[in-house]
Q: What sequence folds into this?
């Protein structure tokens, strides 16, 4: 076994990562895809914009692993990592829970579908809502907070992954473990679909939707330690071929079964595509990705993602009654709602979020 540690010879003493401008733009493209799916899906554009979440996953896996690989392995550094992540994620997240579950209802605002999510409020506070949504599939207005499932998946990753790296920092087989994990995730996801059909939704399970994050992590390892990647290349081919065969078998063997082809490898292939996009943008300057518009969306993507769906369901009943008699089309209403959602995210960033981000310099 190769005991060469997966950490730099001269590690950085802080958990501040190198800044990758191109990835800011990719984050912006990810949130734009989500907005397109939720506002224009099924009537103006295909609803494939949900893949923006998979792009978020790949970016998160790469950036977090890159931070950890460029840092030393002292416990104090891991502690600083958690502190910085908490300042980045928790204030806005918990503000949204306070607003949606308590302040707005107290002020008399009745949000459609909120009671369904309110019954599981404890899970939201603990970042466990993804398990609920995997076994209780909401419909109609109840989906007002279902997009929070991906926030839970990422937070669970942030809590566990640094500790795994701390323990296995000298294990030369960690890349093999990541590749095997991607394979196991696909087998598990497919098995759940075959066994339970539409009674369960592996789309939001932690253990069946980690492949995008893991592929981002693998990319970080590959770029930092190309020598270790060469040793894992055989297993990478085995993993890719096995998942491809899984897709083929499911397609022909379970043609009449409610098995989602995305569960049988599709999500992984989408993540691999985004992994290639991320890797390409790290080595090349893309005018599209590094232009002002995607970087603007990237800067405010977190707030847009959290608040866009609640704002949509809160305002849609009114905006539809105003705009439909005039335009007889949803496009003007959708553009207005997107503008409101972006404006709200920008406002909250400057009034609330950025003050916590400034505290990151102390860690």
A:
């Amino acid at each position: 076994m190769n005991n060469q540690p997966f950490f730099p010879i001269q590690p950085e003493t802080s958990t501040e990562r190198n800044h990758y401008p191109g990835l800011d733009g990719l984050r912006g493209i990810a949130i734009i895809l989500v907005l397109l799916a939720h506002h224009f899906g099924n009537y103006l554009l295909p609803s494939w914009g949900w893949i923006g979440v998979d792009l978020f996953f790949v970016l998160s896996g790469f950036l977090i692993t890159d931070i950890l690989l460029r840092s030393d392995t002292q416990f104090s550094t891991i502690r600083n990592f958690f502190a910085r992540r908490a300042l980045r994620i928790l204030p806005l997240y918990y503000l949204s829970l306070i607003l949606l579950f308590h302040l707005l209802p107290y002020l008399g605002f009745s949000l459609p579908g909120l009671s369904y999510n309110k019954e599981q409020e404890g899970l939201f506070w603990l970042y466990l809502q993804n398990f609920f949504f995997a076994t209780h599939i909401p419909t109609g207005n109840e989906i007002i907070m279902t997009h929070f499932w991906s926030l839970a998946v990422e937070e669970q990753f942030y809590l566990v992954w640094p500790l795994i790296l701390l323990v296995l920092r000298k294990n030369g087989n960690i890349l093999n473990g990541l590749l095997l994990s991607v394979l196991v995730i696909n087998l598990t996801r497919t098995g759940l679909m075959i066994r339970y059909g539409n009674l369960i939704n592996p789309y939001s399970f932690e253990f069946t939707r980690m492949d995008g994050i893991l592929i981002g992590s693998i990319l970080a390892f590959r770029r930092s330690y190309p020598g270790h990647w060469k040793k894992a290349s055989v297993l990478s081919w085995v993993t890719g071929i096995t998942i491809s065969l899984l897709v083929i078998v499911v397609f022909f063997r379970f043609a009449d079964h409610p098995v989602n082809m995305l569960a049988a490898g599709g999500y992984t292939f989408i993540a691999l595509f985004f992994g290639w996009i991320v890797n390409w943008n790290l080595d090349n300057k893309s005018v599209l990705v590094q232009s002002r518009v995607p970087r603007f969306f990237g800067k405010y993507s977190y707030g847009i993602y959290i608040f866009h769906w609640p704002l949509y369901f809160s305002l849609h009943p009114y905006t539809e009654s105003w705009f439909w008699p005039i335009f007889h089309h949803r496009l003007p209403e959708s553009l207005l709602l997107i503008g409101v959602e972006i404006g709200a995210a920008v406002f909250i960033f400057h009034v609330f979020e950025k003050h916590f981000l400034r505290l990151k310099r102390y860690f």
